[in-house]
Amino acid sequence: MAKLKYYQAFNRALREEMTRDENIILMGEDIGESGGIFAQTRGLHAAFGANRVRDTPIAENGFVSAAVGAAMTGLRPVVEIGFKDFLTCCMDPLVNQAAKLRYMLGGQVTVPLTVYTFGSGGVNAGPQHSQSLGAWFAQVPGLKVVVPSTPRDVLGLFKSAIRDDNPVLCLFAKRLIGSSGEVPEEGEDFTLPIGRAEVRRAGGDITIVGVSTMTRVALAAAESLAEEHGIEAEVIDVMSLSPLDSDTIIASVNRTGRLAIVHEAHAPCGIGAEIIARVSEQAHGVLQAPPLRITPPFAPSPFAPVLEKAYLPDAARIAAEIRALIA
Amino acid sequence: MPKLNEQTALAMHRTMCRIRYFEEAASAKYKDGDLPGFIHLSIGQEACAVGVCATLEVSDYITSTHRGHGHCLAKGGDAKRMMAELFAKEAGYSKGRGGSMHIADVAVGMLGANGIVGQSMPLGVGAALTAQVKETGSVAVAFFGEGASGAGVAHEAMNMASLWRLPLIFFCEANRYAELSPYETHVPLANIADRAPAYDMPGVTIDGGDVVAVYETMTEAVARARAGQGPSLVEAKTYRWHGHYEGDPQVYKPEGETEAEKLRDPIPRFEAVLKESFGVTSAALEVAHAEEKTAINAAVLFAEQAPDPDPSPAGLIANVYAQTGGA
After folding, report:
1. One of A129, A229, A263, A266 is an active-site residue; which one?
2. What is the CATH number of domain A198-326?
3. Is the pLDDT of residue A287 over 90?
4. Domains of chain B, with CATH numbers?
């Protein structure tokens, strides 16, 4: 195993895939010579040239739609949207074009498009640079959505996204960019299947499903619950929002009888709501306690560090809510 | 510049007739209640579709608007499969999943009519980007209307195309109405093409009822694009004989306007040229009309007799996702 930071795993995935397939191009704002705002694309422009690594104007609607047109005609574009909030500027190409073209053209085309972005909060970026909007896209047939939380998952899922013949949205987390983790050695062609969740910690008292950053926070909460209260939580990293791996979650809930979901997105109509719905449908009667959604309040993400700290779920809050549920 | 030769001219005349009869048949069948949904017809605009596509190879691309039947036929689409799509049949180009607004024949480079006004332009950017990156020698034409010219994405697309010197022609069919709104209510300039200098590309406004003018202008723009000299903007002033949609009462049109425009019907105008330049006889032209009309009647019969799509659960999710690629 090698050790890489989250953004380095991203860079390695892209480098390996662009080396493997010359139809892959990279497009976005500031991804060229500058190497990206988080150094995530550093070296790619030099390695693959301006033809394949293309800085765009600040025009998300236009360049994502252009990437869709390119994907329909033989390229495999990988497109950066700097911050997740800016996905709102390219809803049409994602939702009306990329997601539907194969279907509405009767299968005449594939749209092998990968759109990635950096989202979530925790870095005091304020209301327009901190959102978690993944669930919106999980409501759209034709799209796939992944939310990797570790360098290994970034490497495996991003590579799979690029190889997928469908449009895939890769939602990375700004807060995790500098985090480190073990990844397979350089030279090993490592991919992870889209649509599969993983159990990150085994436990028999409650299932906690984490989304992206919140998986790590949930793991910290699980350790303190075990140490201080003897409560053993099973923690699942959802990894993909669409397709959603309800089998792994339901199998766990069948063992634990309790369910909590932790995400940075707001609760209404979110992934937590969807997971609870599926558990209700497919494992009705198994729950020994009401399901919990642990999320920020229904308000925009605040700028002030003291406010954002209170806004985002942390390990202490997760542990307290679970302890109250089980007591 | 190569002049229009007789063989090409006769083929173009055939295609204009085919479009006219196709659209008239669609109008009649819609009136009879045989076609579900909405249809947008291009009667009166045949010279645009035909003059453009006659300058293209099968390997070149077009992106189209919600008014795309003529574009599809002119690019080489099969009237039977198109009509079957309008009739919502499995034999249609989109297997009855798209309808009139998503008519496409990707095999001949027609990447689809599109229900979102303006998106044909960046989608065309993408097709041209593929041609540039893969050095295929192909060009793309993005059809749009003057209504789309006010969309932000029109600016984004023209800016990107010029920045990257893409092999692309933006072809504006200025048919006097954006949906129900007359030109002067939403465009402050007399000509859309006057915006071209702002993008550092050639722009020209021509008579869109003169198929020879369209052909000659496009021949030059296509040659420029193929030679790597970048995009052009061509604006063809044309006229939409019918409403925005079939059934539109057209209360916004001045009395007598359509009747006056019909006196400038592009088909007889071209026939006068054919007689004068190539000595084509009235009898020969009548044969062309009769044969095209017969072919459209056959297309209608084919569509009427074709089976419905499969409404089973499997039929409803067909082609939502490609099953290829991935990890």
Report:
1. A129
2. 3.40.50.920
3. yes
4. 6-317 (3.40.50.970)
pTM: 0.97
Q: Give the tens place of pLDDT for each residue, A110-144.
A: 999 999 999 999 999 999 999 999 999 999 999 99
Cβ-Cβ contacts under 8 Å, A65 against chain B: 119, 122-123, 125-126, 153, 157
The tokens for A315 are: 């390990």
Size of chain B, expressed as the number of residues it contains: 327
Whether B106 and A109 lie within 8 Å, measured CB to CB: yes
Q: Pick the closest to residue B199 from B173, B163, B166 (CA basis).
A: B163
Q: Could you give the ipTM of this predicted complex?
A: 0.97
Hey, what are B217's tokens?
């202008």
- A263 counts as catalytic: no
Instruction: Give the side-chain half-sphere CA count within 13 A for B121.
Output: 31
CB atoms within 10 A of CB B288: 20
Residue of A nearest to B59 (CA): A73
Please state the CATH superfamily assignment of the domain spanning residues A2-183 in this structure: Thiamin diphosphate (ThDP)-binding fold, Pyr/PP domains (3.40.50.970)
Rounded distance, CA A178 to CA A163, Å?
A: 26
H/E run at residue A233: strand A233-237
Chain A CB contacts of B128 under 8 Å are 69
Give CA torsion, residues B176, B180, B186, B192, to 10 deg: -30
Return the residue of B nearest to A70 by Cα.
Answer: B126
Gyration radius of chain A over CA positions:
20
